[in-house]
Amino acid sequence: MANGCNGTAANSVFRMSIPEYFTSPGPATVYFDNEGNRFPIPEVRLQPGVAAADGANTSFFGGDDVGDLDTKPNFYGTSAAAPHAAAIAALVLEANGGPGSVRPAKMKEILHKSAFPHDLDPNYASGKANTSDGGAVRFTAHTDLGLNPSSGINNVNHLTIFYTGPGALTSIVFNPEGTAQTAGNTTGGNNGLDLTNTYFSNVYPGIVWEPLTKAFTLGDSDVSAGDITASFSNQAPLPSVPGQWWTMSLSFANDTFTDGKTVRFTVGHGPQHNRQVTNGTGEDGGATSTSFVMTDLFGGELLLPDGAVTRNGMTFSGTTSTGATFSGTINNRVGEGYSPTDGFGFINAEAAVRIGPH
Fold it and tell me: Is 85 left (phi over 0), alpha (psi -120 to 50) or beta?
């Protein structure tokens, strides 16, 4: 089920930095009280309140997920996440003297305060670079996971370049270094329990461009398709296959991409290394994803449960007709506070017990 009445969003134990796609976003607007009476003014509640883990092992139900190395079944959904949140609440009660030691309102406050920093602008990432002659280039990525035919990579307007300044923008290159470390998806890799029941987190970053999955397609733009050329270079190694590239270059002819203009487009892209460990825990463990196009992966993320914030995502650079150059990095807004996707964030059980009203 979705987060609904339990107020708990779900984050997979395999990718705790990323909320599950099926978690209903908030906030929640409530029109009636418990007796069915309409409120004079509808209440807007910050739900979901927190996020907790799903995808954990069970002893007898669910199906095994190849994201871990054991063969035990895994249980998904906010029906799985809510008991994890309740268990942390029980630990808080235990640390403070048992049942009745923490009032419900205080418990909510503790769980909210204990959460890890998280992405405060979900389904969105952006980067801005100043040109060497006083102009500016801004890139934004804004879309969801692609659960309907007009979203994800099928949304031709979900990637945007905006230019302001002298002359015209002549080129922009995404991940010009051609490396995994400069390609976004900063916390991608294998997460889960190994055969010794020890949590492991192997990080293999990088988004690859996949024009064979979805060709470069222009959306609502101020520059015509005839003046734009997309090219790809730096073939990504295994587990990527031919036609999946680290670098995408866009060139703009005839000095048409001038001050105040915007180019909107889409193109195939996805994590170079997914979380599956079918072939082991190394870099070749999971195949390159061709459909997981969540735009948050362009920017820096939070590695959980390590708690490390990686603020820099994919790099970009380019030139203008005046000979100016620019370079920048795509980022997410990571911090503390409420997000409509996962509330106040993924609960840190150790922090919740530590900050309780002892």
Answer: alpha
CB-based burial, 237-256: b 16+ in 10 Å, e otherwise: eebbeeebbbbbbbbbeeeb
Residues near 217 by Cβ (< 8 Å), separated by ≥ 6?
Answer: 156, 265, 266, 267
Cα dihedral 1/9/350/185 (nearest 10):
120
* 112 phi and psi angles, rounded to 5 deg: -65, -45
Amino acid in the structure at residue 70: D
Q: Could you report the per-residue pLDDT of 23-35, keeping only the tens digit for each?
A: 888 999 999 999 9
Band (93; pLDDT cuts 50, 70, 90): very high
Taking 90 as the threshold, does the pLDDT of residue 275 lie above it?
A: no
Q: Could you tell me how many residues make up the chain? A: 358
Distances in whole angstroms, Cα of residue 199 to Cα of each of 14, 53, 236, 255? 10, 14, 28, 53
pLDDT of residue 305: 80
Single pTM value for the model: 0.91
